[in-house]
């Protein structure tokens, strides 16, 4: 999700708001400790996302959970997925739900949306697949050089490979994604790498925390590289990661500050669930890339609007914005209101993870849209 934070690069001093956890272009996380390094100092205090319902509440329609082996470079990476199904009398609707890309990214954020959709539409035959990104959730976390191109290739292989758990003959797959995942799907569709029947973009974002605040000039890019290298380092990297991300106070602060609209929805259980993800081997590598902008699908609002415009007349697109999103993230979402290529724009309660905090509202908008297209 994202983090309001104060980052100081010596000798420069910048008060900042930046996102480290979710792909939302202006999310923030506060860090309550100070780290001193030769070239920079970080003051911060974190924030993440939560739900007012136990994360242990799984949809009752689970058909299968397993690992799919994604072949990338010379590696075979185990990708965790779940299949949920509700049988009905009408033709099947196939959906892929992919989580936001963040420090604590997990398919759990879609659990209650799946429950709402499959349990309410009793006459429809739905098949929904949830997938964790490589390097996140319950998938393998190898030490790769994670970039937006790597994640885009994974998405294309996931949808197109005949041995993938989501592969279906024809183009009847509806892809539902949050944050950066939504924007990556639209970009992949523009490039012709995927051709879903529809795209549902929930709180779509495109900019990582540091680049949106400090820009991308040569000087700053070199500092991003230093930070990224530090986070990936064997000893110092874990120390820094433990301060910025992998501690319960930081996660709770993130969720309460802006990832959720209502701090009362942040439960000890959800904090523990997300904290456990940060303790897995290899947990630092994707966050190191996300924080420093390597997972940004595009580099400007103009590009952001352009990729959505390319969907006009090709693929129906639903954009789900939120009423309580942080200012910067909200501005990017609002830029899509009435924009070319956006078939329908709606707003629901919530901040950065409405699908987890207000699953019923998100599920209702998805259901309405599927009936309209």
Automatic annotation (TrEMBL):
Q: Name one GO cellular component term.
A: chloroplast
Coiled-coil boundaries:
none
Return the Pfam families for the record.
Abhydrolase_6 (PF12697)
Which stretches make up the AB hydrolase-1 domain? 109-364
Protein name per UniProt: AB hydrolase-1 domain-containing protein
Q: Which gene encodes it?
A: LOC110700592
């Amino acid at each position: 999700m994202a983090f309001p934070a104060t980052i100081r690069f010596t000798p420069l001093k910048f008060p900042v708001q930046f996102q480290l956890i979710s792909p939302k272009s202006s999310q923030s996380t506060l860090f309550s400790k100070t780290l001193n390094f030769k070239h920079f100092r970080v003051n911060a205090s974190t924030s993440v996302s939560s739900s007012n319902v136990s994360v242990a509440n799984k949809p009752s329609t689970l058909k299968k959970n397993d690992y799919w082996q994604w072949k990338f470079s010379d590696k075979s990476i185990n990708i965790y997925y779940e299949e949920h199904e509700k049988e009905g009398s009408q033709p099947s609707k196939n959906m892929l739900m992919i989580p936001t890309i963040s420090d604590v990214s997990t398919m759990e954020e879609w659990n209650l949306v799946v429950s709402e959709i499959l349990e309410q539409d009793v006459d429809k035959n739905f098949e929904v697949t949830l997938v964790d990104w490589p390097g996140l959730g319950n998938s393998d976390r190898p030490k790769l050089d994670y970039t937006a191109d790597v994640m885009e290739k994974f998405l294309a292989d996931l949808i197109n490979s005949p041995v993938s758990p989501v592969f279906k003959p024809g183009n009847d797959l509806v892809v539902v994604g949050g944050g950066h995942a939504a924007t990556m799907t639209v970009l992949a569709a523009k490039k012709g790498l995927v051709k879903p029947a529809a795209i549902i973009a929930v709180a779509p974002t495109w900019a990582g925390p540091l680049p949106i605040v400090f820009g991308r000039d040569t000087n700053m890019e070199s500092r991003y590289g230093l930070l990224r290298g530090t986070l990936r380092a064997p000893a110092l990297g874990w120390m820094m990661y433990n301060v910025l991300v992998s501690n319960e106070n930081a996660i709770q602060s993130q969720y309460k500050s802006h990832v959720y609209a209502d701090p009362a929805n942040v439960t000890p259980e959800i904090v523990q669930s997300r904290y456990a993800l940060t303790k897995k081997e290899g947990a630092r590598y994707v966050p190191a890339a996300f924080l420093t902008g390597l997972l940004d699908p595009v580099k400007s609002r103009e590009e952001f609007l352009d990729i959505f415009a390319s969907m006009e007349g090709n693929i129906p697109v639903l954009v789900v914005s939120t009423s309580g999103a942080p200012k910067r993230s909200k501005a990017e979402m609002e830029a899509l209101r009435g924009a070319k290529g956006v078939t329908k724009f709606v707003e629901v309660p919530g901040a950065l993870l409405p699908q987890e905090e207000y699953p019923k509202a998100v599920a209702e908008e998805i259901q309405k849209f599927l009936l309209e297209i």
